[in-house]
Amino acid sequence: MERPAAQHGSVLKLLPRGLRMAAALLLPLALFYGLRAIGVSAYLALLAGTAGSLAGTAVDIVRRRTLGPVTAFVITLMVFSTGVSLIAGDVRFLLARGAWATGLSGAWFLASAFTRRPLVYLFSRPLLEGRFGWPGDWDALWERVPRFRRVWRVTGVMWGLGLMVDCVLRILFAYTLPVDMVPAVSTALSAATTAVLIAAANVYYQMTGAARKWSRFYAAPQKHCLRGPF
């Protein structure tokens, strides 16, 4: 079992990533309501919020300096979101912009669940491999433990369906709620969807034993196939 100091160190390493995610959610919201407060139209305020969000994403991509599957996913969403924002339309259409990006994300998660490396696996690996009770050497586990692969495929479907539901709700909110209420509600929905999906996934990992390297999940008959200690 991991020592408390090691777990504390792992949490501290994840704090910058969490702060960047919080900023990505809150910056567009702050820009929108700040501009609305000084009389800027809802349409222009939404465009400014979109520009702020895209700038933050672009900086994060530059910092990665590598073009892996995760970076390609982020770039695709950024380009897609920019393209939707530039399409001439009314404020309601622009409010629904996030829904189309979320729907694309959900479809990508679903489709990737049945590929060699599901998107949720690629996102989770840097955060969990060898941390918080998870074993290391995920490459070996992926190749030699079928139930390990199944866990990530199921999680990929879970995230894909959850994001699809989020997409539908965003469209409903964009076209039914008061314009100035939609950005706040959509941001709250993003936070809620992420929290629910992370919680559901972690419950699933604990129930299967995948998140505990000492559990029966990694016991025989797979145990003899694995290289190195867990």
Describe this structure in words.
By secondary structure, this protein is mainly alpha-helical. It is built from 9 helices and no strands. The chain has helices at 4-37, 42-64, 69-86, 91-95, 97-112, 119-128, 138-144, 146-176, 182-208. It starts with a helix and ends in a 22-residue tail after the last helix.
Question: How would you sum up this structure in a few lines?
Answer:
The protein has 230 residues and is an all-alpha fold. Helix content is 74%, strand content 0%.
Jot down its keywords.
disordered C terminus; 0% strand; 74% helix; 230 residues; 9 helices; single chain
H and E string: HHHHHHHHH
Helical segment count = 9
Question: What's the average pLDDT?
Answer: 79
Query: How large is the radius of gyration?
Result: 20 Å
Instruction: Count all strands and give the number.
Output: 0
Strand content: under 5%
**Terminal CA distance:** 10 Å
In the predicted model, the low-confidence regions spanning at least 5 consecutive residues are 4-14, 222-230
Largest sheet: none
Structural class: mainly alpha
List the SSEs and their pairings.
Layout: H1 4-37, H2 42-64, H3 69-86, H4 91-95, H5 97-112, H6 119-128, H7 138-144, H8 146-176, H9 182-208
Helix pairs in contact: 1-2, 1-9, 2-3, 3-5, 5-8, 8-9
